[in-house]
Amino acid sequence: MAAIKYYMSSVTSSLAIKKKQQKIELTLDGHKIEYETIDVSKDRSKLDEMRALSGDDKAIVPQLFNGETYCGTYEQFLETIEEEGGLYTFLQLEAPAS
Predict the structure, then answer these.
(1) Is 25 exposed, middle or buried (0-12, 13-18, 19+ CB in 10 A)?
(2) Residue-level pLDDT, tens digit, the chain, 98 residues
(3) Distance between the two ends of the chain, CA-based, in angstroms?
(4) Choosing a second label site near 13 at 20 to 30 A (CA), which of 40, 61, 68, 85?
(5) Which residues pair with residue 69 across a beta bridge?
(6) What residues contact 5, with CB distance under 8 A and at least 6 apart?
(7) What are the DSSP calls for the chain, one per residue?
(8) Chain Cα centroid distance, residue 38
(9) C-alpha span between 91 and 41 (Å, rounded)
């Protein structure tokens, strides 16, 4: 099982959320980072779980966790992917050897 948990929704009318999810997926796939996709639209308890883990009872998708540890907001994700090794720092993963 992958250490990274990616909470998303396959059913959303929000174009902004769809674009955020797409950006995360393209970035993780592009760096060949394995992740577990958790679709909150298929199981309401997963939305509650995501909110409990993030410490925000109003949190919305997309959200990223390393195991049970919350990685940060989507905005923080965007900021860190621009930095050398920032994605791995954000996800609390060891960067691969060059």
Answers:
(1) middle
(2) 679 999 999 999 999 999 999 999 999 999 999 999 999 999 999 999 999 999 999 999 999 999 999 999 899 999 999 888 899 999 999 988 86
(3) 25
(4) 68
(5) 66
(6) 35, 36, 38, 64, 65, 66, 67
(7) --SEEEEE-S----HHHHHHHHHHHHHHHHTT--EEEEETTT-HHHHHHHHHHHT-TT--S-EEEETTEEEE-HHHHHHHHTSTTHHHHHHT-PPPP-
(8) 10
(9) 24
Q: List, in order, residues 6 or more apart from 45 with CB less than 8 Å away.
A: none
pTM score: 0.93
The token pair at 16 is 């902004």
Pairing of strands 4-8, 63-66: antiparallel
